[in-house]
Predict the structure.
Amino acid sequence: MRILIIEDQPEILQNIADYLELKGYLVDCAYDGLGGLHLAVTQPFDLIILDLMLPGMDGITLCQRLRQEAQIFTPIIMLTAKDSEKDKLTGFQAGADDYLVKPFSLPELHARVEAVLRRSQTEMESRLQVDDLTYDMNSLEVTRQGKTLKLSPIGLKLLEKLMKRSPHVVRREVLEELLWGEDLPGSDSLRSHIHVLRHTIDKPFSSPLLHTVHGIGYSLKATDNEI
């Protein structure tokens, strides 16, 4: 598991990093908001520990930019000396997953880290993502670039199969069997449903994700060029 710590107080940062490394985590560090944002959007992390008061960019703004602009949903534990209910609500509304008030013990932080990672792993198992398209299989909510998309039950079935197989091609006979079993309808039925799916997930956006592999099937992947 890889953790990013964004904290401007060197002693606190070093104590947290040393403790978590002893617990078996890989740790990267940033001492200001801009550096932390750069690392968070360019490298993969399993969790971010984020101080609220940072030079360059405060933790609330950084958290909001990760969630809203970068569409990065890595779990975030926010650290702060502010302990009012209003401050905590502001942190959660910005996208934090947990909120720990200074001073805190390292064992408590470790316990929070493990709890957030367990929760995140459970959520990830029910959440599919291809580029900026996400599908929450628990809530049946599909979003792209933060915009909620409405799909029919058939559209959801197609999308789930395509996302689980992404970026590989799914043969049209596999999709037909998924939807209708052995009782196959006319030859244009799948094409019609794919057309509706493409209209919903691609047409409002600049880059296509759903691609036709002529004579074979369909693939869902981030590329500007159809196969």
Remarks:
- The longest helix spans residues 106-125.
